[in-house]
C-alpha cells in the first residue's frame, strides 16, 4: 500500500534499530537451565533465575533475535488485565483464586516499572492508566463503566462514546525498548542468549537446534505464539494474528481536535475490539485482529500484514476520530499471540522430567510475562510460594482441532463476532446472541 511501510518486524523496532543476531550456538554444549524462546517470558525467567542464583548457567535460545516476536510488536499496554477466562480459573481455584491472580497482575505492573527504573531501561514508560469506552447500548451494559459520555469526552473525544471505564493500573510502554533493555540486563547478569539458533525439538534434558544440541536438566518452553512451530506442539496453542498501524506525528491542532491530552491508553468494548496508545513522539498506534489466523498455524514473514487489514484499521481510526480521517499512516505490521483452546494462560514445571512452559496469554502478555517468569523461577528452584499457588499454575487444556477444522472454526468465530458488532452498532440494545454463540464455539 503506497506510503505505508508494511512489516520490518514492527515500528517499535524500526525506531530503535533492528539488531543482528549474536552469540549463535556453536555445536553441542550443556548448561543448567535452557530456555527456548527469547521473548519476554524467557527473558524475565532468565532474569529472575540469575538474580536468585548467580551460579546457575542459564542459556536462552532464540531463532531470530531477542524480542523478535510479540514482545517487540505488541500495543504497549502494561496492564493488569486478566490473561484468560475468570470462569476457567474459578473452576480450579474458586473466586478467591481468581482474585489472587488479579491482585498479582496488578502488583506486576509496579514490578515491571520498578525493574525498568532500577536497571536503567528507558522504554517510554508512563503510568497513565487505560480508558475503555462503550459506543453502543450493548457495549455500555457489558462495560458497566463509571464514566458518563461527558466524562469520557473530558479525557478523549471518541465519536459515539456513551460511557467509559478508567483503570489506573496500566502503563504505556515502547515494547522494543523494554524487551531490548531486559535482554541487555540479562546478558549483564551472565546469561547467554544464543540468537540466530532455531530449536527443532525439545525433550527431557535436551534442546535440539539447527546449530547443535544444548543439554540441560531443566528445559523451559517459552515460545508463546510460535509454539506451533516446534515438533509435537502444532495443536497446543493457536498462533492468533493481531495487527497495528501507526500514524504520522499529529499536529497540536489535531491532538486538540480529539482532546487526547494525557498519555492514557485507549480501548473499546466491541467483540472484535481495538486498542491504541499515544506514542512518546506524538503518534497514534492502533491495533486490532485483522485476519485472525493463517492455515496450518503459519506465521507472518517479517511482520508483514495484509492490505485489507491496514484499511480495516484505518477505518476504525476514522470511526473513533472522524477529524483524523485523512491522517497519514506511516507503518503497519502484525504478530502472533498464543491462544490455548480454553483461552487461558498457564505456567507449569515437572521436576521429574525437568520440562516446563509458560504462555498462552491471549493478548494480555506484556504484564503476564513478568509474573510467569517469577513463577517459573520459584517452580524450578522448588520454592512453594504465593506465585506457585496461583490458579494458572499447572493449568491443563485440550489441544486445538486438526486442520481444516481449526482454520474454519477460527474464521467462523471472528465472522460471528464481527456480525455481532454490526448488529449492536445498528441499535441492538443488548449483547447479540450471535456473540454468545461465538463464545460457545470458542470455548471461552
TrEMBL record:
Residues 32-379 form the FAD dependent oxidoreductase domain. InterPro entries: FAD-dep_OxRdtase, FAD/NAD-bd_sf. Pfam families: DAO. PANTHER family: FAD DEPENDENT OXIDOREDUCTASE DOMAIN-CONTAINING PROTEIN (PTHR13847:SF285), SARCOSINE DEHYDROGENASE-RELATED (PTHR13847). This is FAD-dependent oxidoreductase. It comes from Nocardioides cavernae.
